[in-house]
Design goal:
By secondary structure, the chain is α/β, with parallel strands linked by helices. It has a seven-stranded parallel sheet with strand order 3-4-2-5-6-1-7, with helices on both faces. β3, α5 and β4 form a beta-alpha-beta unit.
């Protein structure tokens, strides 16, 4: 079966031009599954790994909706039409870059808010207004509580990497924002996650409107000789477990992943103080 060509989709010309600028010709599996549903106005909950094209899928759908519906008159604080929530600064920056490329011809204002850069400068940029707002939960809440922006007119909601929202402890912040949006039937919503676990599906049941569920199986399998082990431990036990595993497994080349650069630096320091030569790459 041939992959879906973007030319076969009913897309506004400015969106087609952005797709052309990005060099896209045919859809990836997640795009082929999600876009026809999204373009019909359906909510979508998709299970898909990073790098599968999910960002382009929800951006194309969001741009198309904005261009197909007249923008409401603005009054009061900034009221974005599209709200995209992601768990990390790096992901927010990448989504913003993709949005600027794909949306270059749409005339829609795109803004990202996240930690690590000038707080006041970002706040003033948000005060000036935008159509597409991308942000991390914490920074979005900061500006929301200051009434710099309002979620009252959000037409499209995107939650990206929902499973990591739980893993990184952002779920309370996420719910705080979601409870202030228009009701699910008054907006279109997209959720993407590496896994559609029960806790992730609870989000869809509470904050989405009968979403279509899509699962894309990863093409890359774990190498046959790679052993995988999962340990369920409390936060305070993790480092002692790590030390025990290092002593047991030995070896001179060990790669440890962490969720944040701050955690990577803390691990470098703690491992050094316990006799392990380590370097953090951030």
């Amino acid at each position: 079966m041939n992959p879906l060509a973007f030319a076969a989709l009913d897309l506004p010309e400015p969106v087609r031009r952005g797709i052309g600028d990005a060099g896209f010709v045919t859809a990836t599996p997640i795009q082929e599954a999600a876009l026809p549903l999204a373009l019909r106005g359906k909510d979508v909950a998709g299970q898909s790994q990073t790098g599968t094209g999910k960002t382009a899928a929800f951006l194309i759908a969001a741009f198309t909706r904005c261009l197909s519906h007249p923008a409401p008159a603005r009054s009061g604080p900034t009221a974005p039409r599209v709200l995209i929530i992601a768990p990390t600064r790096e992901l927010v920056v990448q989504i913003e870059a993709d949005a600027r490329l794909l949306g270059a011809h749409t005339g829609l204002g795109i803004l990202a808010v996240y930690g690590g850069i000038d707080y006041n400068k970002q706040r003033e940029a948000l005060r000036e207004g935008c159509d597409i707002l991308v942000g991390t939960p914490g920074r979005l809440i900061d500006y929301l509580k200051q009434h710099i922006w309002s979620p009252a007119r959000v037409e499209v909601l995107v939650i990206d990497e929902a499973d990591r929202m739980f893993d990184m402890g952002f779920i309370a912040d996420l719910r705080f924002i979601l409870r202030r949006l228009p009701r699910p039937e008054k907006r279109q919503s997209f959720l993407f996650s590496a896994t559609l676990s029960f806790r992730v599906m609870e989000l869809t049941w509470e904050f989405m409107n009968n979403p279509s569920q899509i699962t894309i199986t990863p093409q890359q399998k774990t190498a046959e000789k790679a052993e995988q082990v999962l340990y369920h431990v409390g936060r305070e036990e993790k480092f002692n477990l790590l030390l025990g595993l290092l002593r047991r497994e030995g070896g001179s080349r060990i790669l440890i992943f962490s969720n944040t650069r701050e955690e990577a630096r803390r691990l470098e320091d703690r491992l050094g103080r316990n006799g392990w030569e380590a370097r953090a790459l951030t």
